[in-house]
Amino acid sequence: MRFSLLTLNLHTWQESDQLDKLDRIAQFAVEENVTAICLQECAQSRSAELIDEGPLRADNTGHLLRERLVVYGLKYSLAWDWSHYGFERYEEGSAVLSQLPFLGSCSQYVSGTDDPGTVQSRKVVMARLAVGPATVIDVYSVHLSPPAEGSESQTDALVGFVGDTPNLLEQMKPPPPKRRGPPRKRAAIEDPTVLTRLVCLAGDFNVTPDGHVPRLKEYGYLEASAAARDTQAGTGTFEDGRWIDYVFVKPAVRPQAASVVFHGDDRPCVSDHYGLVVEFEV
Question: How distant is the alpha carbon of residue 160 from its chain centre?
Fold first, then answer.
């Protein structure tokens, strides 16, 4: 099946005409039928009204984008959590949206601090997506600190989080309902089918390609976004021309296509970052 992913840093409500820009992102996702979206600096006002019992608030940009997608005819599930306060008034975090069903989601700090009062507190959000009866894709929305603030150790912690995820999701499952009466006799069954697990790390790693990010190759990851850098040399993913956003996959599933979008030439910019789109056959 075709699986496409868009990753984009939204710039924490600092954009002019933010709602219009969210609408442009929604239109793009519908036109391209994007399977999953990873957002960073996906923020909400700390004083905004909670939706139901939280953690989402009414102006959460991931929530607002999901509502726009519904208007255009696509339904996405949303997982979101926040890391720290941004610009004092926002709860700034990351999100995963997906057209594929969620089988679970969780989040974890990868920074040495979990103090929401410091911008170097970094939490990664993941969602497990159902691809088939025996195949899942674990998608991680990543926003690391700059190198001087510890992104190298955060990269190692991210790899640790990926390794811990199966146990974390298992622990989060609700207990089975209690059954009255004597226990039901069960016939012996074969061992359960082992799931094929694909891992996708996508987002703002805050380091250029000549930095430590290629170390992820040592952990068995393929940089799927390299295909876009090869074909769009000089574009970058940040407004100053640097390439600091990536998509990594494991096992090394080579992308069918990869491109930088919302960089001003193809479509108007929607943030101080540009988007990355990568497409696979899974």
Answer: 17
Beta bridge partners of 95: 39, 80
Q: Within a 13 Å sphere around the CA of 274, how many CA atoms are in the beta-carbon half?
A: 27
Q: What is the DSSP string of 232-250?
A: STT--SBTTS---EEEEEE
Cβ neighbours of residue 100 under 8 Å, at least 6 residues apart? 35, 36, 129, 130, 131, 137
Q: How confident is the model at residue 175 (pLDDT cuts 50, 70, 90)?
A: confident
Span 26-45, pLDDT tens digits = 999 999 999 999 999 999 99
Q: What is the dihedral of CA 172, 178, 182, 183, to 10 degrees?
A: -20
Distance between CA atoms of 82 and 252, rounded to whole angstroms? 30
DSSP state of 67: H
Q: Which pLDDT does position 127 carry in this prediction?
A: 98
- Whether residue 112 is predicted with pLDDT greater than 60 in this model: the reply is yes
Considering the domain 2-172+194-281 in this protein, what is its CATH number? 3.60.10.10
In whole angstroms, how far apart are CA 75 and each of 36, 226, 233, 241? Answer: 11, 30, 34, 34
CA atoms of 139 and 161, how far apart (whole Å): 12
Query: Do residues 246 and 225 lie in contact, with contact meaning Cβ atoms separated by under 8 Å?
Result: yes
Which of 56, 49, 60, 70 has the alpha carbon at shortest distance from 10? 60
CA nearest 162: which of 122, 111, 107, 80? Answer: 107
